[in-house]
Each structure stands twice: as C-alpha cells, then as structure tokens.
Amino acid sequence: IRFISDSVLSGFTSAAAILISFSQLKHLLGISIPRASLVPTLIHVCTHLHEINPVSVAFGLAGIVALALRRPLGLVGHRG
Q: From CA 38, how far away is CA 41, in angstroms rounded?
C-alpha cells in the first residue's frame, strides 16, 4: 500500500463507498431493485418512487443520522 498514491487510494475508497451505498438502496427504500450497474439502478429507483416504504426510509435515515452524530457528540469510545 505504500506504493499506491494517496489520491488513488482515496478514489478507490470513495468508489467502494458509493457502490456499497447503492447496493443498500433496496433496504433503505423498502423496494425491490434488480441487480444492475449504477445508472440503471438510479433509473429504476426514479421510476418506482411510488413504491417506496416510508417506514423503511424513516428507520434507515434515523440510523444514518444516529451514526453520523456519534462522532460530533463524542460518543465514539465513550465508556460513561
């Protein structure tokens, strides 16, 4: 890893995060999404917005917000 530049490593990490995020959209939105690449997945989601489960979205976004707030609130590694 020492021979890989920081920009290449950062690009690889960012791309992996994007792919993982898009693979989890079906769980976040509560709809069935066929396996496809990025653009067809986005098109499918946009054409099936009426099928989104609001309860799944609420719980998913609440979980994302809770994870995002852990570090700013100082809750990471906190042992009370």
A: 5
Residue whose token pair is 């997945």: 41
Q: Quickly tell me which residue has 């709809």 as its tokens.
A: 31
CB distance 28 to 60 below 8 Å:
yes
* Tens-digit pLDDT profile for residues 5-50: 889 999 999 999 988 888 888 889 988 888 878 888 889 889 999 9
Tell whether the torsion through CA atoms of 58, 49, 51 and 21 is positive or negative: negative
Give the predicted TM-score (pTM) of the model: 0.63
Cα torsion 22, 44, 33, 63: sign: positive
Q: What is the pLDDT of residues 40-53, one digit of tens each?
A: 888 988 999 999 99
